[in-house]
Amino acid sequence: MPVMFIGTGASGRVLITLTKFKEKPSPLPFIPSERELDQLIVACNPYYASFLQMMKETGFRPGKVQLLKLVDIDFENRVVTLNSPL
Q1: What is the domain extent for residue 65?
Q2: From residue 18, how far is each of 10, 85, 86 by CA, in Å?
Q3: SS3 for 14?
Q4: Of 29, 38, 42, 67, which is the most exposed, with the fewest CB atoms less than 10 Å away?
C-alpha cells in the first residue's frame, strides 16, 4: 500500500511523494488434517456431527448442506445430489 509524504518545496508549493512498499505475502490459511477433522466430528453432538461429516465427505459449503432435502440423498447408491438452485 503506498504511503504519502507531504512537504513544502523551495518554491513554497506542497509536494506529495508516493512511495510503494513491498507487500508481505499473506500467510497460508490453517487447514486441519483429516485426523483433526475426525476428532472434531466425534466431539460434537449428533446434529453437528452429521452436518460436519456431510461437509467433509462432499466438499459442500454450510449453506449447501442446509439446503439438502432427504430426496437428494440416494442411500442405496451412496450418492448425494445437489438439486437446489443456489
Answers
A1: 34-80
A2: 19, 47, 44
A3: strand
A4: 29
